[in-house]
Amino acid sequence: MLIEFGEQSAKKHAVVIGAGFGGLSCAKKLRKSRSCRVTLIDRNPYQLFSPLLYQVATASLPEDDIAFPVRTAYRDVQFVRGEVTNIDTTAKELTLSNGKTVSYDDLILAVGSEGTTFGIPGVAENTFQMKTVNDAREIRRSLLRTYESVEDGLLPLEHLNVVIVGGGPTGVELAGAVSELQREIQREFEHIAPKATVTLLEAGPRLLPSFHPNSSKYTLKTLTRMGVHVQVDAAVTEATNRSLRLKDGKEIIAGTRIWAAGVVAPPHWKFLGETDRGNRIQVNSNLQLSDAIWVIGDAASYPDSNGRPLPMVAPVAIQQGKHVARQIRRRESSKPLEVFKYRDKGQMATIGRRKAVVEMNSWLRFQGSLAWLTWLALHLAYLSGGRNRTSIFADWIWNYIVWTPRRTITE
Ligand SMILES: Cc1cc2nc3c(=O)[nH]c(=O)nc-3n(C[C@H](O)[C@H](O)[C@H](O)COP(=O)(O)OP(=O)(O)OC[C@H]3O[C@@H](n4cnc5c(N)ncnc54)[C@H](O)[C@@H]3O)c2cc1C
Fold it and tell me: Which of 59, 101, 206, 306 is the most exposed place for a label (fewest CB within 10 A)?
């Protein structure tokens, strides 16, 4: 069955797959086109604000705060909830998992990425990933429920230990937040909670490898002061249902094991063109795969000035989404397409309350309270929707004054 929308079929049809950072920014800009109608397809009816997922996992924010409902957000964009399973580039038609098909004139592939375990034995079965709302929910449940089970004598004390794999921004943010959660929860479980530990493992020689070494040093020092056991050069070779084993043979026992060590583009779309080692589809300088197909965000491999693929971060996806919308509109007015140029505005990671690192460029770097306030302000600015922004702002103020773990009635 072919889905057609209203009386608008005289206009060209641009279909965006994925309502994440890239897809949403593209659809938002493209809807202003007079000669093109826009359909946005996503398996979920919301845009997930992944940078704050760790705060849901560590019981600071409710999950609704980081999920922006897209169905009614832009009334001039048709939203279809569904899983795209195939793209027929010859027929210019895509298929949804329910068997329905959608035809397109322009297709924007913005399907993001997924966690990878690098094929390490036991990791897929015995660790939590942190990519979806459901992942964050499972981590929160494990972190909170374990205290009750240990107190009731159903699990040994060592189950209170948490181990996080991956010393990038996600692992660092999570380790700091888990350590703060463990400290706060001592009021509720005073006999057992002081025994809980958190360990952060990084396979490389330093935390935050994409940051300046001084930022890495500050992060290591701050996390260590917060009581996090940080181990670098600590590659994981195996995961079991109670521990992680390192390359030096050491075993780390922990009830909650979280994998935050790397993402790849979904392998499902590799048939569309040449891909890099992370399954990312290689695009031309306009972000095209062909005249009608554009690929953006985490799913696209686009080189920086040194020939390395741009990082898988939200600003890249947003800028690419806007760029593609601009190009489609330029083409409508028979203007030549422009080359995509990424404007790198820097990187940042929060470590805990009043502790963060910010790098605006190679010389403007700062740490501590000012960095933390910058991090808060920029994350609020990047959030979609006034309601989510207001709610998160209120939660942050509350958490700053009186912090208690946010539980749901199912936990
Ligand atoms: C825990 C975590 C923390 C992060 N922190 C930061 C940070 O602090 N700063 C930063 O810049 N970046 C951060 N990132 C990375 C950032 O989230 C991504 O780079 C960004 O989301 C990429 O945007 P995108 O549009 O390519 O994909 P996404 O935003 O992931 O959107 C992809 C969308 O496609 C949909 N989709 C996928 N396949 C299909 C299909 N077959 N059919 C229908 N829909 C589909 C998905 O449901 C999703 O909504 C973080 C990522 C994670 C996981």
Answer: 306
Confidence of residue 7 (pLDDT cuts 50, 70, 90): very low
CB of 173 shorter than 6 A to ligand 1? no
- Ligand 1: which atom is nearest the Cα of residue 44? 47
The Å distance, Cα 360 to ligand 1 centre, comes to 22
CATH of domain 12-43+82-115+264-332: 3.50.50.60
Which pLDDT score is estimated for 106? Answer: 97
Report the C-alpha gap between 32 and 109 in whole angstroms.
Answer: 20
Domain limits, the chain: 12-43+82-115+264-332, 123-261+346-401
Q: Is the pLDDT of residue 89 over 90?
A: yes
Query: Whose alpha carbon is nearest atom 38 of ligand 1?
Result: 111
Atom of ligand 1 nearest to the CA of 379: 8
Is residue 92 within 8 Å of 103, Cβ to Cβ? yes
The pick from 70, 313, 324 for probing ligand 1's pocket by mutation, whose C-beta has the most ligand atoms within 8 angstroms, reads 313
pLDDT on residue 258: 98
* Catalytic residue flag (residue 411): no
Q: Which residues contact 193 (CB under 8 A, 6 or more apart)?
A: 147, 160, 182, 185, 186
Q: Using 50, 70 and 90 to split pLDDT, how confident is the model at 193?
A: confident
Taking the CA of residue 21 as reference, the ligand 1 atom at the shortest distance is 25
For residue 408, what pLDDT is reported? 67
Q: In this predicted model, what pLDDT tens digit does every residue of 361-384 receive, in sequence order?
A: 778 899 999 999 999 999 988 887
Give the residue, by CA position, lying nearest to ligand 1 atom 53.
131
State the pTM of this model: 0.93
Same fold, 12-43+82-115+264-332 and 123-261+346-401: yes
Taking the alpha carbons at both ends of the chain, their separation in whole angstroms is: 42
What is 123-261+346-401's CATH number, 3.40.50.1240, 2.60.40.1180, 3.50.50.100, 2.40.40.20? 3.50.50.100
Give the distance (Å) from ligand 1 centre to CA of residue 23.
10
Are the CB atoms for 281 and 265 separated by under 8 Å?
yes
Residues with Cβ within 8 Å of 305's Cβ and at least 6 positions away in sequence, in order, are none
Residue nearest to atom 7 of ligand 1 (CA): 51
Residue 9's pLDDT band, with cuts at 50, 70 and 90, is low
